[in-house]
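Technical note accompanying the year-one report. For the benefit of new consortium partners, we illustrate the data format agreed upon in the data management plan: each record pairs a sequence with a structure-token string. No post-processing was applied to the example shown here.
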Amino acid sequence: MDAIIISIGTELTTGQCLDTNASWLAEQLSDHGARILRHVTVTDNVDHIATCFREAMKEADMVIATGGLGPTPDDLTREALAIALDKPLETDQAALRQLEAFFARLERSMPPANVCQAMRPQGCEILPNPRGTAPGISHSSSSGHFFILPGVPSEMRAMFQQSIEPLIAQLATGARTARSRLLVFGISEAKLGELLSDLMNPGRSPSVGTSAADGVISVRIVARGESESDARRLLAADVDEVRSRLGDSVFGEGEDTLADAVGSMLLEQGLTVATAESCTGGLIAKHLTDVPGSSGYFIEGFVLYHNSAKTDRLGIPREIINQKGAVSEPVARAMAESCRGISGCDFSISTTGIAGPDGGHPPDKPVGLVYVGLAWEAQTEVRRLLLGDHLTRDEVRDRACKTALNMLRLRLIESQGRP
């Protein structure tokens, strides 16, 4: 089954919004064995949209378009589909009643502009929207199937799962696809490439590829088989092999974060953590508490930007700061140890550094220099990071945060519950 995905909206073609719908739909369709011919992004122009629709209908067994189903004058997808099919628009009375009922539940009058959302080209069907006001539209013929979904991601996904996925499962024939994304931190992309080089040979099946973003490397594994069970068997074998080669550098899979990995291990081992942050400004505490159930392991966090706060709140001796500077190994060590003592936790994390863009004093203390401390009962570890002045302020803070979380993750693996 060949498929084309069309994303509609000037906000997408101008880069004002990121198109996450196309990647999500491509993954869903691929999982059902579809071959994605291409992704198309088109501006809010009725003629351009209609042209895209006509071309896609000629080439693909299935076309899925998103966006342009709202009630405003720039929502032109309905009109474009009518032009492409050479059919008049008409009001679907059932859809209109559903719209009116939606507003009635909110105890609001339906604006006249919303009436257009109940319109569809003659011969098309309305797809109910369980999450909003914009119904979808479907059209099927001997040449294939055409679906238009809302651009709002939550509405699009709900409609796809409710109305389209069951049909695709019936239509899909041939090979099935299974995929996984392993997440890696603390190893260079070049080193990872060396370790997986034979698995990444062109034409190999399953296919293995990598991409890097914000310090995290994703290892993508895609397996195709004659059946779903066959594809999953091939996938599982490669996932196990990659994990074996990369070891503890793999921290998760899919949408996992380092904080997810750390949080689950702390809960499993019945351990607690606190933070004392300077340059990261509470970012580590935020990531740790983003995880549901974090109250079971996160005790408290200190954000200590000014030197006097480090002294007044954590009791860091002034002479250490005066002699070594706030951005130094001794200060990071003292912050971690004092935080652990005050909080009574099993682990504490500290950061002090120069996130930039100003404040650096090369060569000894350039922008991008960060010290990360990790204290536990047995000892305190401090890492010196030279992240580089080529990174933005946000990037320096993000890398420092991830490094700190990864230090704790590796310590939890090593200690196995014995801090």
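Partners are asked to follow this layout when depositing records. The radius of gyration is 27 Å.
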